[in-house]
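Me: I keep going back and forth on a fold encoding question. No explanation is needed for now; the record alone will do.

Assistant:
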Amino acid sequence: MSRPEGCRIAADLADYQHYGIVKGEIAAWEDGFRTRPGGPGTFEWWYFDAVLDDGSTLVINFMVKDIRGDGGIKQPARPVVTFELDRPDGTHVERALHAHDDFTVAADRCDVRVGACTFAGDLRTYRIHVEIDAVTADVILTRQVPSWRPETGHILFGDDRPRLFAWLPSVPQGSVQATLTVDGDTRTLTGTGYHDHNWGDAAMPQLIHHWYWARAEAGGYCVIASDITAERKYGHTQMPIFMIAKDGKILADDSSLVRFEKTGEHPDPVTGKPVADTTVYDYDATAQGGEHYRVTFRRENTIVQARMIESVKGAKRILARIAGFDGAYMRFTGQVTVECIGGGADPGKVTAPALWELMYFGKTIA
């Protein structure tokens, strides 16, 4: 058996110089079009989610290519906008808009237009407009926590000419004003939201086996946490990513000090993928004179259970089945508990509602 290839978060001085970015500083162009001209083998999206004051969750995504199903990653840019609203009474509203020619994307800032839908901002304030079928949304997201990325934000897969997966949480936490019209019913709501930007140069199933990703606000804390497991070619290497802020100031983000745990794992009844009832990110910097934080997500509801192959049509679906493609995506709601256990900060514990996901591209690991 050949030795697995390496994967790492690009964090060396040479990495910063290569990507033309500055450590600890985010520039507006980093949230602009990064896979220009969106050629074959690339992917890119601008994502927004919010937890609203009526208990609803809202997710809007502008993708340069439709990465659902087989991803269409080999195709040229054909943008799609997705809208998902989950209300506390269990109502699920979902829409998608595909555009073949009617779209524009700026490279110097976040400014994306797909048909009548727009997503634009300057790292501080974003405005999102969606018109799809009988749904209209107007959202203003105002940043409360500084823009952030894990080191350069670039994760490299491979030893020779490595492939790239990049991630920029442009708004780790922000205030949200949203006016939503669904089938003639208009509601104006407030809440808290998040925006990130992802891109890469290879199909994600070739690089990533699965990931947990979460964001949360609780008692003044803002948390972004993820655990990425690389594909078998890269030794199923785990890469935890973690950032915690309080009252608008980033407190800790050294991912090398994070231990990821999961308990209560069982097969999801729709997708068949293993789902954990509890996921934990334990950040312990006490040996370095820092703090010890423990962030626990407890699942209460699975609000999205999607087998990716269901979005693949025609001959592509047959080929995907022959190839054994069985990717899945799940989104959860529940409670997050943030504990400050020790170190330089005062001990304490706070709990609040939270939203997180499991993206599972690969075969289930026995």
